[in-house]
Design goal:
It is a single chain. The chain is an alpha/beta fold. The chain folds into 2 domains: 4-216, Spore Coat Polysaccharide Biosynthesis Protein SpsA, Chain A; 226-346, no CATH class. Helix content is 41%, strand content 20%. It has 12 helices and 17 strands. The chain has a 5-stranded mixed sheet, with helices on both faces. Strands 5-13-7-8 form a 4-stranded mixed sheet. A hairpin with a 2-residue loop joins strand 14 (226-228) and strand 15. Helix 7 (236-253) crosses helix 10 (302-315) and helix 8 packs antiparallel against helix 9 (285-300). The longest helix is centred in the last third of the chain and has 24 residues, at 258-281. The radius of gyration is 20 Å and the shape is globular.
């Protein structure tokens, strides 16, 4: 483990590593140690927000890592509020939002910092993501299809990235504050998509540092969202939040006139998908718990969403062409259906 003087709270940090933790006692050791073993020479602070864990991880962190700034929540508030709380306390010029189940390569912070110094500070940066179980490359950021499904990018030379995953996301504190952080009403999921789309609306970039990387235990924080035995496996709560929050992002961020075309098609396709999936699985709960839940949520928040959309679109500083640059024509769900078949969706 490196010299702990770089984690001295009296030293002004260059980077604040913010870790949202919920029942992560199995992973938190490797996560914190990967930060402590960084090759960078600048000061770093580690902030952990424990989201009312019941596995003793908060006590474990306090007893074993006294240099970590630990924030404890009395109730579970979700990923968005957890990160917003940490970033308010962060003193670094840069933020690294990191999942508790992520493990940084030793040169990760140094690579992110050096890249940010040689490129535009006002951009979001990510790192190549590797599966912690198999060591396989998961993605080098993601592009989108026109229905805002994230399409994993594995081309190291592909620079037009739509988003980087929130499990390891680097952003300047000034840009974070300018965006306003995560929307707390999202609770969890697609908040990284929201942040990246908002940054693109303002004319800034979303890029991946093509070297270094991090390992990630995919799907451990909320369950599902990964390939098991050559089949896509997920959970109803995860899928519901994902579809709802992705729809929020589309409604708020898509520039006109393509917004009207694709959002209408998106709602129609959600209904069709829900009906067909419920019929195939012989489970009407899928239609109600995921698809109608999403549509009802949009309808209930319609006035709020309309006001927010008007505000964001007035702040837009780029043409629609720039925003849609990292988008693919072929629907990603169709590609996944052809490759893996009907997804396995479980209640818990």
């Amino acid at each position: 483990m490196k010299n702990l003087s770089q984690f001295n709270p009296s030293n002004k940090p260059v980077c604040s590593v913010c870790i949202a933790n919920y029942n992560g006692i199995k992973f938190i050791d490797n996560c914190i140690k990967s930060i402590c073993n960084q090759s960078c020479l600048f000061n770093v602070e580690i902030i952990i927000h424990d989201d009312a864990s019941i596995d003793g991880s908060a006590e474990y962190i306090r007893n074993n890592y006294p240099f970590v700034k630990l924030m404890q929540s009395k109730q579970n508030v979700g990923f968005c509020i957890s990160n917003n709380r940490m970033t308010k306390e962060a003193k670094g010029d840069f933020l690294l939002l990191l999942n508790n189940d992520a493990i940084l390569f030793p040169d990760a912070l140094e690579s992110l910092y050096n890249y940010s110094q040689n490129h535009d500070h006002n951009c979001i940066l990510g790192l190549p993501q590797y599966n912690a179980e198999t060591d396989e490359l998961i993605d080098i950021g993601s592009t989108f299809d026109f229905f805002l499904n994230a399409v994993p990018n594995k081309d190291i030379h592909h620079s037009d990235i739509g988003m980087v995953i929130g499990a390891c996301l680097w952003i300047s504190k000034s840009l974070w504050d300018d965006i306003g952080g995560f929307p707390e009403w999202f609770h969890t999921l697609a908040e990284d998509m929201y942040l990246c789309c908002m940054v693109r609306l303002k004319g800034f970039g979303v890029e991946v540092v093509p070297y270094s990387g991090f390992h990630h235990w995919v799907g451990t924080s909320i369950g599902g969202g990964k390939i098991l035995k050559n089949r896509l496996s997920t959970l109803i709560p995860r899928r519901a939040l994902s579809e709802r929050n992705k729809s929020y992002v589309m409604f708020l961020c898509y520039p006109s006139p393509l917004f009207h075309l694709f959002f209408s098609a998106h709602i129609l396709l959600l209904l069709i998908e829900g009906i067909l999936l419920s019929f195939i699985k012989r489970d009407s709960n899928l239609l109600f718990a995921i698809y109608l839940f999403t549509i009802k949520s949009l309808w209930r928040k319609r006035d709020f969403l309309i006001r927010l959309r008007k505000k964001y679109q007035k702040q837009r500083s780029v043409r629609a062409y720039y925003f849609f640059k990292p988008f693919n024509v072929i629907p990603y769900k169709l590609q996944m259906l052809i490759k893996y078949g009907i997804p396995d969706i479980k209640q818990r």
